[in-house]
Design a protein that fits this description.
The structure holds two protein chains of two kinds. In chain A, about 0% of the residues lie in helices and about 55% in strands. Chain A is built from no helices and eleven strands. In chain A, the strands form two sheets. In chain A, strands 2, 4, 5, 6, 9, 10 and 11 form a seven-stranded mixed beta sheet that branches. In chain A, strand 7 and strand 8 (about 80-85) form a beta hairpin. Chain B contains no helices and nine strands. In chain B, strands 1, 3, 4, 7, 8 and 9 form a six-stranded mixed beta sheet that branches. In chain B, strands 2-6-5 form a three-stranded antiparallel beta sheet, with no helix packed on it. In chain B, strand 7 (about 85-90) and strand 8 (about 95-100) form a beta hairpin. The chains are: A mainly beta, B mainly beta. The interface between A and B is medium-sized, with 24 and 29 residues.
């Protein structure tokens, strides 16, 4: 079954760290670029980061650049997002999404998301 | 940074046609993708490359893109189409980043 399953969400204090994981199955993970997209409570979708299929290129939204790190382990079919120094504005459901297309990237498969709440 | 603007809400009666717009500077030169999101669920791709439909998406969903406006059209609207809809483009002009529209809530009357 082709799917993405996120984990690692929860309550984190401002300034602490948290690592999210996304386990992929049912497709050849190492062939796909992968993204993280988040959605604050009651708000719209916000793209967070992308990592190339081989991990050699990574790009970030300005709102998280320098604080979050995207990575992947193709041997484990797993995508990661390290959240460093989160603030209340980072509270959201975090989705991992599979990338498709070439220069005009889109997201053809989504996980169900994991909720991150930044609160003291 | 590139901005995509959508109307906050669209209301439509069952069986009628809903049109959701997505405005952006010269968006016609970009490829636009559309997602449907129902409450408590993950987004689902319904249109990619302006007008292509993934397998499993009904033919009632169609898309177009020209000038400064892209449009998602839902024909013969059903109660199950009630959801939030987001447009999306990929901006490679100065960096690589995804851009989502502000989202439109479609209400079936």
């Amino acid at each position: 079954q082709v799917q993405l399953v996120e984990s690692g969400g929860g309550v984190v204090q401002p300034g602490r760290s948290l690592r999210l994981s996304c386990a992929a199955s049912g497709f050849t993970f190492r062939n796909y670029g992968m993204d993280w997209v988040r959605q604050a409570p009651g708000k719209g979708l916000e793209w967070v980061a992308i990592i190339w299929y081989d991990g050699n290129n990574k790009y970030y939204a300005d709102s998280v650049k320098g604080r979050f790190t995207i990575s992947r382990d193709n041997s484990r079919n797993t995508l990661y997002l390290q959240l460093n120094s989160p603030t209340a504005e980072d509270t959201a459901v975090y989705y991992c999404a599979r990338g498709a297309g070439t220069t005009n990237w889109y997201f053809d498969l989504w996980g169900r998301g994991t909720l991150v709440t930044v609160s003291s | 940074s590139y901005v995509l603007t959508q109307p906050p809400s669209v209301s439509v009666a069952p069986g009628e046609t809903a049109r959701i717009t997505c405005g952006g500077n010269n968006i016609g030169s970009k490829s636009v993708h559309w997602f449907q999101q129902k409450p408590g669920q993950a987004p689902v791709l319904v249109i990619y490359y302006n007008s292509d439909r993934p397998s499993g998406i009904p033919e009632r969903f169609s898309g177009s893109n020209s000038g400064n406006t892209a449009t998602l059209t839902i024909s013969r609207v059903e109660a199950g189409d009630e959801a939030d809809y987001y447009c999306q483009v990929w901006d490679s002009s100065s960096d690589h980043r995804g851009v989502f529209g502000t989202g439109t809530k479609v209400t079936v009357l």
